[in-house]
Amino acid sequence: MTEFEPLVDSFGRRHTSLRISVTDRCNIRCFYCMPDENIRFKPQDELLTFEEIERFTRIVAKMGVSKLRITGGEPLVRSNLSYLIERLVAIPGIVDVALTTNGILLADHVAALKNAGLHRLNISLDGLTEETFERIARRSGLDRVLAGIFKAQEIGFEKIRLNAVSIKGITENEVIPLGEFARQHDLELRFIEFMPLDAENQWQSTQVLCGEEIRAQLEETFGPLLPSPRGDLSQPSMDFHFADGLGRIGFINPVSQPFCSNCNRLRITAEGAVRNCLFSLKEWSVRSLLRDLATDDEIADVVRDAVRAKKTGHGIDSPDFEKPDLAMYQIGG
After folding, report:
1. Termini Cα distance of the chain
2. E strands present in the chain
3. Backbone angles phi, psi at 79, to 5 degrees
4. How far apart are CA 1 and CA 84, in angstroms?
5. Alpha carbon distance 113, 260 (integer Å)
6. CATH class for domain 17-331?
7. Are strands 188-193 and 160-166 parallel, antiparallel or unpaired?
8. Residue 32 vs residues 38, 128, 136, 207, 208: alpha-carbon distances, Å
9. Angle at 182 between CA 180 and CA 183, to 5 degrees
């Protein structure tokens, strides 16, 4: 039973999922997310403390939020992240806590994350060759990502998802190896279309490797992909499984097939700004309210205002689309 009214926007979408960015810092420099150099990260005192994140989450949990995703930047560069996970998992009403990571530091931290109660892992893996990895990440480290994946499996994580951003002219040759890797190691793989959230403003629609093109590649090699049951209509991925029973594949196609009509997500940035959409041009800050010891009702009102202001869709496919000033690493993946 929630203590506040549910978070429902003006289009009737009920919001039950919160993405929490804990830092804007990262140990690689993927061009679809952040610039290569001359980055001004937020100073530590401008980031929400773990106690502030916990309090905010307790408030929105009373409004019906039940699923959390911890993001960055790279969340594992923030010290003692497992402590935050442990606190969030214990909040009444929270039933699922996931972490999105680039995997570089995962092997070092995965045991602590599991002990803290983390339910799921999403690991970025855009390609399986060091050449592709470095072309995208502009740093080395593929071997460490793979070590993190295998360590997570070794210690018993059962819900591990690989996220591959698809970029025309770069990742076509990675599609089949990634599919084979996921099948071989019993991992779920999701391909994500390249979105206009890069910090260097180089995105072009011609760079989008569409989900349908990737699906055709996979089916040509591995055989038919059959639709998987979709228990949650709000999930962004269209999921499939191979006819031979080996492997699960999903496609997140925000550019070619927007899924905004069922969106149930809101976000809070590392510095405490609530965002009702990844592409929102407006934010609603709660940091000062949290630090000035505002009441739960006052903070809930700000969150409710943000949700009510949510637009029908992100509008990437519209001629009037306006890219946010912030890049992915500043918003939270």
Report:
1. 30
2. 17-21, 67-71, 96-101, 120-124, 160-166, 188-193, 225-227, 238-242, 248-252, 265-268, 273-275, 284-285
3. -65, 145
4. 24
5. 31
6. alpha beta
7. parallel
8. 16, 18, 8, 11, 11
9. 65
Instruction: Enumerate residues 6+ apart whose C-beta is below 8 A from 289.
Output: 298, 299, 302
Number of helices (H), then strands (E), belonging to the chain: the values are: 10, 12
**Amino acid, single-letter form, for residue 333:** G
Cα dihedral sign, 61-65-71-72: negative
Q: Are strands 248-252 and 188-193 parallel, antiparallel or unpaired?
A: parallel
Instruction: Report CA-CA distances (Å) from 228 to 165, 247, 264.
Output: 21, 11, 21
Q: What does the pLDDT profile of the chain (333 residues) look like in tens digits?
A: 356 899 999 999 999 999 999 999 999 999 999 999 889 999 999 999 999 999 999 999 999 999 999 999 999 999 999 999 999 999 999 999 999 999 999 999 999 999 999 999 999 999 999 999 999 999 999 999 999 999 999 999 999 999 999 999 999 999 999 999 999 999 999 999 988 877 778 878 888 899 999 999 999 999 999 999 877 777 888 999 999 988 899 999 888 877 788 899 999 999 999 999 998 989 999 999 999 999 999 999 999 999 999 998 887 767 777 878 888 899 997
Could you give the CA distance from residue 218 to residue 278 in angstroms, rounded to a whole number? 29
Q: Which two tokens stand for residue 222?
A: 């591995």
Which residue is listed with tokens 């890049």?
327
Which pair of tokens denotes residue 150?
Answer: 């295998």
CA distances to 115, 127, 196, 222, 301 from 180, rounded to whole Å, are 30, 12, 29, 9, 48
Is the Cβ–Cβ distance between 300 and 4 less than 8 Å?
yes
The reported pTM is 0.94
List beta partners, residue 39. none
Whole-angstrom Cα distance, residue 113 to residue 85? 7
